[in-house]
Amino acid sequence: MLVSRLSSVFYLLFILLFFSFSSANGAKKEKDLLRHVSAEECKTCHEDIYSQWEGSMHANSTALKDPIHGAFYTAVVGSPEKEGVKKNGKYPICLQCHSPAAAKDGKTDLTSNEVYNEGVNCVSCHTITRFKGTKKPSGGLRLGMQAYAFSDTSLQGPGTNHAEADWEHPIFASSANPEVMKTNAVCMGCHDKRNNSNKVALCQTGDEIAVSGDSNNCLGCHMPIVNGKADHSLLGGHSAKMVGKGLVMTLSTLSKDAKTLVVNIKLANQLPHKLPTGAPFRNIYIKLTGYGQDGMVVWTSTQSHPAKDDKKAMLMYSLGDAKGDPAPPPKATQVLGDTRLKPHETRKLKYFLPAAKIVKVRAVAYYDLLLPPMKKKFTKPEHEELVTSKIIAVAEKIIE
Predict the structure, then answer these.
(1) How far is the C-alpha of 352 from the C-alpha of 290, rounded, in Å?
(2) Residue 172: what pLDDT?
(3) Across-strand partners of 326?
(4) Exposed e or buried b for every residue in 310-347, given b needs 16+ CB within 10 A?
(5) Based on the domain organization, do 305 and 373 belong to the same domain?
(6) Which of 71, 88, 314, 322 is paired with 355 by a 20 to 30 Å CA distance?
(7) What is the residue-averaged pLDDT of the chain?
(8) Same domain membership, residue 260 and residue 135
(9) Is residue 13 part of a domain?
């Protein structure tokens, strides 16, 4: 009797295991193993890193989370909540960087799978096995996920000098891959160069670094080691503090004559890429102000905005249409100008002020994610942070 009962138990266990194994295999095939693993799964063991990543632009890169990208995507491509959307008959290239998991699956509805709206999540980077380069042998560009080869069975890590156990994963196989994970290769698929449909260069940080000849690694600034671990906050163009680290602004004065005060503002770019870099509508502008004895403003370099009346103080990438009029990045057919600071460039701005009334001069550098005309499209309360100019450098001097 006991034997019979034990046989029944073992039989039931066998059936359960069989169906569990079959279901697991089916799920594995459906999930493509690592491709659909959510960042939430990684949080279990890597809570600090998850918290850093969760607040990063990598985590908020999709058209459903980033208002700027969302506005462009909706206007140029279509709804990010609709399947089968195409741009000029092709799969939207934007998703190759802004939603890697969706791009790997060829999907466009970012609500159809939780990982599609996680942006550049953990496995987006940590399954890269090889960087193929952004330039195709036959011409043209490989963008985003197209520029990489991936593993569906093994997580990829930096293979640092830490104990090997630091990189062992309790569930998935792990491989040390320093050629990708410790070099610019892990960044360049999305941050090298991006053209619009008219072959006008938009984002082009990789090309800027190549021209500079600088051997510094992107990760050194954007993923510094903090308390023994790489910081996954991934600060970049959306952080005014990060942008401000790249600019050194100083101010000097001299008297040309009894009536004229000459002010020289020196701008030095410490970075191996242009300042600002990335999205072509990011810009920096300088305002110089002269103050009188009573602390009131008696002179200013601009009455409205440098884009209108002091263009030498605007650091920006200008795009236009065939007629030479300003045009948004997706529709631009030519570059009208580029006044951004080149890698490691030092530039001087000179101003002539009325000497008699001024006792102090103050220069302020502001950083904007958007150009003035574009700000008018972002009017919701939650957009305030996006449209507010951020101070990134200040220099002043008392006139004796």
Answers:
(1) 11
(2) 76
(3) 320
(4) beebbbbbbbbeeeeeebbbbebbeeeeeebbbbeeee
(5) yes
(6) 314
(7) 89
(8) no
(9) no
Q: Quick check: 147 and 132 in contact, CB under 8 A?
A: yes
In a domain, 108, yes or no: yes
Give yes or no: residues 203 and 253 share one domain.
no
Residues 142, 162 share a domain: yes
Let me know whether 245 and 203 are in one domain.
Answer: no
Beta bridge partners of 157: 176
Query: Does 221 share its domain with 249?
Result: no
Residue 258: predicted pLDDT: 82
Residue 217 shares a structural domain with residue 269? no
- Cα separation of 190 and 219, whole Å? 14
CATH number for the domain spanning 323: value is 2.60.40.2360
- Which domain range does residue 204 map to? 39-230
Looking up tokens 């998935």 gives: 172
Q: What angle do CA 338, 342, 348 make, to 5 degrees?
A: 90
205 within domain boundaries: yes
Task: Kindly report, residue by residue over 133-176, the tens digit of the pLDDT.
Answer: 999 998 889 999 999 999 988 999 998 544 444 556 767 788 89
pLDDT digits (tens, 9 = 90+) for 98-145: 999 999 999 999 999 999 999 999 999 999 999 999 999 988 899 999
* DSSP H helical ranges for 140-204: 178-181, 185-191
Does 98 map to a domain?
Answer: yes
Q: Are the C-beta atoms of residues 326 and 259 closer than 8 Å to each other?
A: no
Residue 160 has a pLDDT of 57
Predicted local distance difference test score (pLDDT) of residue 19: 34
pLDDT in the model for residue 166: 55
Nearest CA to 121 out of 40, 14, 239 is that of 40
Query: Do residues 303 and 382 lie in contact, with contact meaning Cβ atoms separated by under 8 Å?
Result: no
Residue 231's pLDDT is what?
A: 97
| Verdict on whether the full-model pTM lies above 0.70 | yes
Number of folded domains in the chain? 2
Nearby residues of 339 by Cβ (< 8 Å), 6 or more positions away = 311, 312, 314, 315, 316, 318
Q: Same domain for 107 and 143?
A: yes
For the chain, residues with pLDDT lower than 70 are: 1-32, 160-168, 170
Q: Which residues contact 131 (CB under 8 A, 6 or more apart)?
A: 147, 148, 180, 185, 186, 188, 189
From 377, 392, 91, 396, select the one nearest 238 (Cα to Cα).
Answer: 392
pLDDT tens digits for range 48-72: 999 999 999 999 999 999 999 999 9
Last residue of a domain, one of 205, 230, 255: 230
